[in-house]
Design a protein that fits this description.
By secondary structure, the chain is an alpha/beta fold. It has 13 helices and eight strands. It catalyses: N(6)-[(R)-lipoyl]-L-lysyl-[protein] + 3-methyl-2-oxobutanoate + H(+) = N(6)-[(R)-S(8)-2-methylpropanoyldihydrolipoyl]-L-lysyl-[protein] + CO2.
């Protein structure tokens, strides 16, 4: 019994010592964490005597009256613009003072995009390609924002940003090759039409699922921040995509991680057939920025200069201050959502005609150039003829090209082809050989 009693005493002493050691380590760890937290957040010393909320989750004051916050207590966020509908500069201090050559480039890119849209839209209607989405009415958001970026900035598009890629120098034959999925397509025929991408131009390949690019852009911007280089990320999306959960995750991550990211929302009035009054009850998309701790602005998306100014300043500050910005560009989708949509089923012809004839970004910029003697009717006719000829040449070339080699179905997945892929590949070729009359391999690149 004495031995047992001695053993118990020794166990108790050892257990007490272990607990003391563990407690000391835990205390030091907590002190270290507190020091780090204090160093990072610079929190004020806790003082319970102050009659102010001490909750760490928000900055506020106590009140003694029960009152819910009304959604309309604040007037609508204003829309920033530089030009009126007739192309007149409203406030000279906001004129970006762009050169004649730059403005002409804006106009020619916007109208070239318009011409390409018309030809490829008709191509789909004739059964030459499977699908297409036009950019009618939103050309100002593309060109104005693209011009304000650095070529090294990374772009995440949705599916209606062809003008951004065109401004960066993506050639017409590559646009056509992608829509025709021919052997010249950088995506090797694996994507549906209008899903462009270019590594050389820092334009991430577009994917079909809605809003997936938003958290991806936040991650890319965080990586850019860690590299500590003069580079920003811009992420385009529509107001419909802003209703997806991915949008909220992307907003919150970018704000809390303080990323050099520009969220660019094209609010064109409709998420396919759903008008904005059925999508949300709040004041658009820009109003959501402050809730996530982001600086926000609403601009006239049909005013290419307003878009340019807002994007340029957002880009400058995003890089200099490592913080995200939210731009809501108010515009209108004049065309159908896609070739799978008939917009006449949910909006009137008069509504579309107003935006097409009275408040179009191309006509507004043309008014500006005409007033300065930079553009004439003869210039317009000559340019329209030339641009159509250029687009048609690229169109005809793309249509004659062969389809990509079927072997490309199995490449670019792994560095070395896995046994399962090898099995699928062998199965494909057995099938093709057995039913070769249904697979005209002479139409495919060797």
């Amino acid at each position: 019994m004495a031995a047992v009693s001695c053993m118990n005493k020794m166990y108790g002493v050892c257990f007490h010592a272990v607990r003391q050691t563990a407690g000391l380590k835990a205390s030091r760890l907590l002190q270290h964490r507190a020091f780090r937290s204090s160093a990072v957040h610079r929190q004020q010393p806790f003082d319970s005597s102050l009659e102010k909320p001490q909750f760490p989750g928000a900055s506020a004051e106590f009140v003694d009256q029960l009152e819910f916050i009304q959604p309309n207590v604040i007037s609508g966020i204003p829309v920033y613009r530089v030009m009126d509908r007739q192309g007149n500069i409203i406030n000279p201090s906001q004129d970006p003072q762009l050169s004649k050559e730059t403005v002409l480039n804006f106009y020619q890119k916007m109208t070239l995009l318009n011409t390409m849209d018309r030809i490829l839209y008709e191509s789909q209607r004739q059964g030459r390609i499977s699908f297409y989405m036009t950019n009618y009415g939103e050309e100002g958001t593309h060109i104005g924002s693209a011009a304000a970026l650095d070529p090294n900035d990374l772009v995440f598009g949705q599916y209606r940003e062809a003008g951004v890629l065109m401004y960066r120098g993506f050639p017409l034959d590559k646009f056509m090759a992608q829509c025709y999925a021919n052997a010249d397509d950088l995506g090797k025929g694996r994507q549906m039409p209008v899903h462009y991408g270019s590594r050389d131009l820092n334009f991430v390949t577009i994917s079909s699922p809605l809003a997936t690019q938003i958290p991806q852009a936040a991650g890319a911007a965080y990586a850019v921040k860690r590299e500590n280089i003069n580079r920003a990320v811009i992420c385009y999306f529509g107001e419909g995509a802003a209703s997806e959960g991915d949008a909220h995750a992307g907003f919150n991550f970018s704000a809390t991680l303080e990323c050099p990211l520009i969220f660019f929302c094209r609010n064109n009035g409709y998420a396919i057939s759903t008008p904005t009054n059925e999508q949300y009850r709040g004041d658009g998309i820009a109003a959501r920025g402050p809730g996530y701790g982001m600086l926000s602005i609403r601009v006239d998306g049909n005013d290419v200069f307003a878009v340019y100014n807002a994007t340029k300043e957002a880009r400058r500050r995003a890089v200099a201050e490592n913080q995200p910005f939210l731009i809501e560009a108010m515009t209108y989708r004049i065309g159908h959502h896609s070739t799978s949509d008939d917009s006449s089923a949910y909006r009137s012809v008069d509504e579309v005609n107003y935006w097409d004839k009275q408040d179009h970004p191309i006509s507004r910029l043309r008014h500006y150039m005409t007033a300065r003697g930079w553009w004439s009717e003869d210039d317009e006719r000559s340019w329209r003829k030339q641009s159509r000829k250029t687009v048609m040449e690229a169109f005809e070339t793309a249509e004659r090209r062969l389809k990509p080699n079927p072997e490309l179905l199995f490449t670019d997945v792994y560095l070395e082809m896995t046994p399962s892929l090898e099995k699928q590949r062998e199965s494909l070729w057995r099938h093709v050989q057995q039913y070769k009359e249904h697979y005209p391999l002479d139409l495919y690149d060797k």
